[in-house]
Amino acid sequence: MPRITHFDIPSDNPERAQKFYQNTFGWKFDKWDGPMEYWMIRTGDDSPARN
Fold first, then answer.
1. Cβ distance 21 to 11 under 8 Å?
2. Smallest Cα–Cα separation from 17: which of 41, 1, 35?
């Protein structure tokens, strides 16, 4: 099954949310270089899923 490619996680405290998701799922966060505060999340590597 392919991974989800886009989703939003609204948060009043992005630092706390990032810490939670990093500790819980091992996700990595990168700040988007755009006109508004937005974070990109890497939920795993880019290799294809195996069945």
1. no
2. 41
Contact 18, 29 (CB under 8 A): yes
Tens digits of per-residue pLDDT, 1-51?
A: 677 778 889 999 999 999 999 999 999 999 999 898 888 888 877 766 665
Residue 50 included in any domain: no
Domain encompassing residue 35 = 13-44
**Total tally of structural domains belonging to the chain:** 1
Task: Decide if 32 is inside a domain.
Answer: yes
Residues 6+ apart with CB under 8 A from 17: 9, 11
Q: Is residue 8 part of a domain?
A: no
